[in-house]
Amino acid sequence: MPLTSASGRRRLRVNAESLVFVVDNDDKSATLACHCLRESGYWTRSFDNASSVIEEALNIPPSLFLLETAIPGGDGFELCRRIRQAKQLANSAVIFLTDKSNQAERVSAFEIGGDVYIVKPVSPRELVATVRAVLRRSEQPADSAVARFGAIEINWLSMSVRVNGEEVRLTSREFRVLEYMARHASRCFSRKQILAAVWPSRTHVSVRSVDVYMNRLRRKIETDPDHPVYLKTVRSVGYRFEGSKEPFNRAKSAAA
């Protein structure tokens, strides 16, 4: 199926920043999702099975995948795993859209790298709002030297962090943990996933080391470490970095 937008069904040049892959073998559900997204200005590509999704995504990486958990040619969970294993798709978000309201399945969806888990039926307005919110969270340019998340300013190149304009001293490992979480803002990670990313040679490192570093970071960047705004605990899963909860204090930043 060609890429389409609200302006017509002809094949057009792709703006990958607003491209959504909809993978759902329920024709009615897929058609409705594509229509709602196109009406809101997104490009869409629809698939009724998993067989060619990765190949097409590597050719034209979408900003977001909307996945049904049960699809022919491999389930949505396996497809999500393959997406997360592809470096070219590292910045693509994944939303699961499913008929099942199952706690174990929801946890699995987050553990393998899903960003949001939505149970059908979902209103068109809610679907579009969720897509916008997920894409907005990762709108910081990947090659930008400085990223801002609410009151936090992170300089990737100098490995420095400011909170409300005040510099916060982090160890190299603390910065790497924060960097990994912030670069994948709003995505849930298990302790094992964080450990594998930040401690690649982890022969004698326990997964509980992740908890230790999260606690250290909370004491340094959170106003109230016991009620964190940025480094959130996701019960039964692990951790998530949540941005844009507070306005960035530009005046303090400039003064510093």
What can you see in these coordinates?
- The chain is of the alpha/beta class and 256 residues long.
- The chain folds into two domains: 16-137, Response regulator (Rossmann fold), CATH 3.40.50.2300; 146-255, Winged helix-like DNA-binding domain superfamily/Winged helix DNA-binding domain (Arc Repressor Mutant, subunit A), CATH 1.10.10.10.
- Helices cover 36% and strands 19% of the residues.
- It has nine helices and twelve strands.
- The strands form three sheets. Strands 2-1-3-4-5 form a five-stranded parallel β-sheet, with helices on both faces.
- α1 crosses α5 (124-137) and α6 packs across α8.
- The radius of gyration is 19 Å and the shape is globular.
- The relative contact order is 0.10.
